[in-house]
Amino acid sequence: MSFTLDQGQLQALQGKILVSASSEAQHGCVTKVVLSFGNAGLTIAVNPDTDEVEVRWLNPCQLASDPCRGLMTFVGQKLGWTWSARNDRGYRDAFLLSFEETVVPQVAFVGVAGELRIRLLSAQGG
Description:
The chain is mainly β. It has one helix at residues 7-13; strands at 2-3, 20-26, 29-36, 41-46, 53-58, 66-67, 79-86, 92-99, 107-112, 115-120. It has one domain (2-120). Pfam families: DUF6334.
């Protein structure tokens, strides 16, 4: 996973309220999501060559072109925990988030075939 932010920047966003979530798509496939936490935010994109998920710090936050409908349920909530996942081949192809006081991942961003797939995860089961 290409992190062009450090752990301190991620920690600085913890507890911040998600103000908006926007996305960009090419040929009907999401390629980038921008999460705005006010003056700063994150861009989450897929590298089309490796399918790795790239997470970058945005300051000031610049929105993408379209609302990210799948994430609207989290707008107004505080960012909780973040995770990155590496597959068995060594690629960091997932980034996960939780909101409010939940320590269980609620959203997964997964790089698949040059597309950024967004999965809402069930809070049940565990």
